[in-house]
């Protein structure tokens, strides 16, 4: 652990391999903090491209990436345990939201209203355990319990989401670009995750190098990109199931987004015309029926 004390005082959170306050007195881990802006940018772009015509759940998925990025900035910028939770808790709820979106993607609810309620309760339970176990942040054992409770929950849920995406990409009717999307996301995540482990477990050797490669900061970049890709994949699948005819588009062949067909003005006019005709026929039928009833009453009186 780095012994340098900066603006935010002695670190109480998980301390990564970047030297503390090495760039500025006001930011504990400069590169880890700045790289977290990638998450904010990815989430904003995702909402911008996938709000109109898409289900709100997908905007929530992209918004959760933004929240994770903001929490990561607070965590790495201060290295305070209370702000570490602002990084870890949103990460967990982000993967829970993805879990819900990939498994509950039909027009009719497969698991009912208790599925999202159950996931929310589970998330709150894990959050409570994390807070209680990390309350005594000076106790190394309790700090490890908090860290691995979070990591265990996050990894299990993420693996479940990843396995489900296999059924999407290996569907024979899926667009070719969707397989590229999945493969690219998988490779990027794997590279970043390997770097994350090296930064965590081989920090002393990293400091022997002429320059620290800042692998945890690179993890932020790969996690941002990979999270964006998985959200795009989930958005594509959900829109496809709902019959919205989504198309996968690429910017510079590296940044994908989903595009929905614009409703034809002719189709809209036709629908309005048909609805007007139906309304007229319905009103005409009502008038005829009332006139018929009136004739029956007149005949009954005459008889």
TrEMBL record:
Which residues hold Ca(2+)? 16, 18, 20, 29
Q: Which cofactor does it need?
A: Zn(2+)
User: Could you list the residue ranges that cross the membrane?
Assistant: 30-48, 60-79, 85-103, 115-133, 145-169, 181-198, 218-236
- Keyword Membrane set for record: yes
Keywords per UniProt: Calcium, Hydrolase, Membrane, Metal-binding, Transmembrane, Transmembrane helix, Zinc
Main localization (coarse): membrane
Sequence positions that bind Zn(2+):
76, 216, 220
Which GO CC terms are listed, alphabetically?
endoplasmic reticulum membrane
Name of a matching Pfam family: Ceramidase
Tell me where in or outside the cell this protein is found.
Membrane
- GO MF annotations in UniProt: hydrolase activity, acting on carbon-nitrogen (but not peptide) bonds, in linear amides; metal ion binding
* Family listed: Belongs to the alkaline ceramidase family.
Q: What is this protein called?
A: 23739_t:CDS:1
What is the source species?
Dentiscutata erythropus
């Amino acid at each position: 652990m780095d012994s340098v004390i900066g603006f935010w005082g002695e670190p109480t959170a998980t301390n990564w391999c970047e030297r503390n306050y090495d760039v500025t007195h006001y930011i504990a881990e400069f590169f880890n903090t700045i790289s977290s802006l990638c998450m904010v940018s990815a989430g904003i772009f995702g909402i911008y491209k996938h709000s109109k015509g898409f289900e709100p759940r997908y905007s929530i998925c992209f918004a959760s990436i933004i929240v994770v990025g903001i929490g990561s900035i607070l965590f790495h910028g201060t290295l305070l345990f209370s702000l570490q939770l602002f990084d870890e808790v949103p990460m967990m709820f982000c993967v829970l939201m993805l879990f819900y979106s990939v498994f509950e993607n039909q027009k009719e609810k497969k698991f009912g209203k208790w599925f999202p309620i159950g996931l929310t309760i589970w998330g709150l339970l894990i959050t409570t355990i994390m807070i209680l176990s990390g309350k005594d942040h000076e106790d190394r054992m309790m700090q490890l319990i908090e860290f691995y409770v979070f990591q265990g929950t996050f990894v299990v849920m993420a693996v479940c989401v990843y396995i489900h995406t296999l059924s999407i990409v290996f569907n024979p009717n899926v667009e070719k670009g969707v397989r590229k999307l999945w493969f690219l996301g998988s490779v990027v995540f794997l590279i970043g995750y390997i770097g994350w482990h090296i930064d965590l477990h081989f920090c002393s050797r990293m400091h022997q190098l002429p320059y620290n490669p800042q692998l945890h900061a690179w993890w932020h970049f790969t996690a941002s990109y990979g999270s964006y890709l998985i959200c795009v994949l989930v958005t594509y699948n959900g829109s496809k199931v709902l019959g919205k005819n989504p198309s996968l588009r690429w910017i510079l062949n590296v940044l994908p987004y989903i595009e929905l067909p614009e409703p034809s003005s002719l189709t809209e006019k036709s629908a309005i015309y048909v609805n007007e005709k139906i309304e007229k026929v319905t009103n005409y039928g009502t008038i005829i029926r009332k006139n018929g009833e009136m004739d029956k009453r007149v005949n009954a009186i005459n008889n």
